[in-house]
Amino acid sequence: MVVNVARETLWRPEDKLPIYEATDLTQGGGLARIRLEDQLYTLRITRAGKLILTK
Known about the structure:
Strand content: 25-35%
Structural class: mainly beta
CATH topology of the domain at 20-54: Complement Module, domain 1
Order of helices and strands: HEEE
Number of helices: 1
CATH architecture of the domain at 20-54: Ribbon
CATH class of the domain at 20-54: Mainly Beta
Helix content: under 10%
């Protein structure tokens, strides 16, 4: 007797999201400005390697 077991593949939305390197955004520095419509935000890489996004 042959039993077919279907493997369930879980699709997660984050699997389709683009990935950006923070150091590419900051061009090797520690700061970058990001515009969203008419608002400007500042992305900062801390000495501890964390990201801070401020308006």
